[in-house]
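Final report, results section. Input specification for complex C-07:
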Amino acid sequence: MSKQASGRAQTVNAGRPWLGLTAFAGVSATFVMGLVVAPKDEQQRDAYRLLYMHVPAAWLAYLAFTVTAIASALYLVPRTRHLRWDYLAGASGELGVMFTALMLAGGSLWGKPVWGQWWAWEARLTTTAILLFLYLGYLALRRIGGSPQQRATRSAIAGLIAFIDVPIVHFSVSWWATLHQEGSVFNDKMQLHIRDGVMQFTLLLAVASFTLLYVWMCMRRMELLALDEGLAERELQLAIDERSNRPATTNPVTV
Amino acid sequence: MCAKDLRIELRARVVMAQVLPFGVLVLILFAFTLDPNSAILPRIAPGLFWITVLLSSILAVGRSIAVEAEHGARDALRLSGMDGGAIFLGKVAAVVVQLLALELVLIVATFMLYSIDVRGLEVLVIAAISATIGIASTGTVYGVLASGAKVRETLVPLLVLPICAPVLLGATKAFESALAGRSGEAWPWVQLLGAFGALYLTVGFIAYGTLMEEA
Amino acid sequence: MSLDYEHVWGYVLGGYGLTAGALGSYAFWLTKKLRRARRSVREANE
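Structure output:
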């Protein structure tokens, strides 16, 4: 049994070092390309370089929350109900919060030199801020305890509720933002035109390598969630056995 | 079910005895932070009113969950074999009734304290009812999701406030338009509120059955 | 509003540094915790 468990862990693990190494190499290359190799933009000069951090962060934030919603739905459908979907939803939600925070922070750092202010009450920005808090709540709800099945059901429902709120928030906020458009910080000067080949390649590399990094982190986070839960359950079992003075039933930790 | 919650609430009177004074107090405190003699208060009154309602609602929703936990009502309900969806609708109805009573007092207080002329009353009423259904539905779903948690009192606001952001926005804009005598501009926002309420009423109806079984 | 496009490196490096810091520390934390969890599972199953 114990061999089977470690064997299973190894099969899951196989091939992952390459994924991780490729992701890290890609992200490092993105940093070099974005900071040094890619040419300056005609309008924004060097400030536009934050694009190579901002675009992948935004893309992964939305991807991660979509994955959380899909995994939540898969858990709720009885035919596909498996804790692995709950681990995926949790791992992806956590990464989504991180990328959303990075998107907001990086966007602020970009906004200050280009717009002259850290923040603008613009539809997409405001929606993103609400999004961050929606999913911070989701993560907090995941940690309130209870059995794994309880947590999985609760958080799957919360994951779906949060997800369907996103378009409503966006719709209402854009409606609200268009009411006082005159103060907008956006103008044609802010438009970026990525026509240069090196710029396009760098952006593509950034999105691809950050996505690989997301996949790698998500898989590891899932494994960690599964292992921690297996260990906790086993400890509980040992404590129960000790209380009832029975010989310990040493079930192997399986994932 | 609705009647049961209301009866318990009437006996305990926590919402009326504590949440309502809290709401009025918040309205008074807003006046301290903003110059009460300038024209700013009437201008931003709709927003202040709805923030007060949202904060008070969270207290009232927390109360509604606590009522259930104290009386061990969950197990009794589960054993009674009632449909989860029906229980949900009953709880939402009870919360809606309480919140509407709360809003009635708070809106009168707002009108008097911030000296506002009432206009577009029918818009105000419909907007308030739609918004209240939205707040009560999301609050009740999240309430049961967070029930049993030691951190419930702090968790529920974190969950409910961002999800109700569109409600706050829509209700404020609807009130602003109506009070400014431009009821026509209020209707799109009222429709948004109605859609939000209907959506989360449906979601809660479906979700509650699953939750009552497992949570 | 005149924009000083020549003195933006602080913001750019800040953005890159923040991203590197967040992703790097998350990956580090994850690896450390995962290694410990794998070891505990191995010990528990022996």
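The domain at 18-177+187-225 of chain A is CATH 1.20.120 (Four Helix Bundle (Hemerythrin (Met), subunit A)). The interface with chain C takes residues 1-2, 5-6, 9, 27, 31, 34-35, 44-47, 49-50, 53-54, 57, 98, 101-102, 105-106, 109-110, 112-114, 116, 213, 217, 220-221, 223-224, 227-228, 230-231, 234, 252-253, 255 of chain A (CB under 8 Å). This concludes the modelling results for the funded period.
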